[in-house]
Amino acid sequence: MADVKRVMKKPASLMFKGLATICGVCLLGSVLAAGQAAPQTAQQTTQPRAEQVFKNVQTLKGLPVDEFLETMGMFAAATGLNCTDCHVDESGGSWDRYADDNQLQRTTRAMVGIMTAINKQYFGGRPGVTCYSCHNGNRRPKVIPSLAVQYMVNPILDDPYEIMQPAFDAPPLDEVLDKYIAAVGGAAALKGLTSYVAEGTYNGYDDFEQFPVQVFAKAPNQRTTILRSQYGDATTTFDGRAGWQASPIALGPVPVVTLTGGNLEGRALEAELAFPGQIKQVLSNWIVGPLTAIGDREARIVQGRKASGTPIKLYFDEESGLLVRMVRYSTESPVGRVPTQIDFEDYREVSGIKVPFKWTSIWTNGRTVYQLKNVQINAAIPATRFAAPAPPASR
Ligand code: HEC
Ligand code: HEC
User: Which listed ligand is nearest to 84 at the C-alpha?
Assistant: First the structure.
């Protein structure tokens, strides 16, 4: 086969230039771009399966749309191939053309079969081997070991995307969490924190423009983010139990996506951690891990689990005690877990409580940066803010 032009690893959001801004707001990223599927109303709670929305799904049947598209992000992350590298070139301009098969599609389907067979035969059906284990970001898996890696002078202390096993000689959990609670204002002040409303700007992966964003959060666990783009409003809501992502009809095969599995749990956790006083209650099965470096600062890694068992890694600045990073995962899928990393910076004091004014989210097919301008604490928020969003109007 001819040597294939290596394309810079860009998130999927680059495929639909100009839509990246809006789509990057959500976990699904721009993959929710112009499609022709039947609109779904907010009242529907079950999300259509991939094969009901897309035309040529043969191997990954039965996955909800959000997980199917995340799986595509996993393929891209594992092979270093862009969405449009693996699909026909024309998919760059037309959502429909994703259905066209080519050799890479056929090989990829075979790869899903190989991976599933290995896992079934040798790992009791658990994803012991995923696309990433073999490919490690390369189109062709490497077969010769790298001496440079083996003799690396500065080994990476922590791979943030690996899940920790309990084997560390670390400080007690309460020491780390209590320091954090004190750093953000102390247990008493946090008890009085019942809601916040924030305004700021939002930047997608390849955006030079910034778009207005609003965040509403209500204790103990409701949160809504509204991005105002030129296409219409994109809304992500967690109402305390269920979660949705709504984007303008012009942009999405499913205008209102019901979040499932790890996506839903991740949103729940973001809502819960907006009220840090309850941090000890929202996770269990804690492990305190080693110190690692984030930039030029040291951070203590702590891992907890949601009730379903999904792990979450939290990184606390060793000096200030503040939460500086969170890594959360999708549900364990046939191709493994999809990681999302959120970095928190620019902590400022608002009515005695320290709030991160900047957060940067990266996942397998996108990156977003939020910069808040003002945060108002304990403002009244109508309950309707956290209701299931209606299919949004396009501008
Ligand atoms: C390594 C190859 C590969 C990469 C990278 C990849 N895909 Fe796919 N994609 C596939 C395969 C294979 C299928 C068919 C799956 C099946 O048959 O179940 C598919 C199916 C799809 C479909 C369904 C098309 C239809 O109408 O049936 C969409 C949409 C899609 N991919 C979008 C994307 C997006 C967006 C990205 C980038 C985030 C992406 N893909 C990255 C291999 C890839
Ligand atoms: C057990 C190891 C292993 C696993 C697991 C695996 N692959 Fe592969 N993959 C390979 C090998 C080996 C090749 C062939 C490389 C060659 O032809 O030189 C390959 C080839 C490919 C190719 C074709 C590359 C090309 O240029 O022709 C794609 C695309 C691909 N794999 C995607 C995937 C995806 C997506 C997954 C997960 C569903 C996956 N692979 C899982 C080992 C693996």
Answer: 1
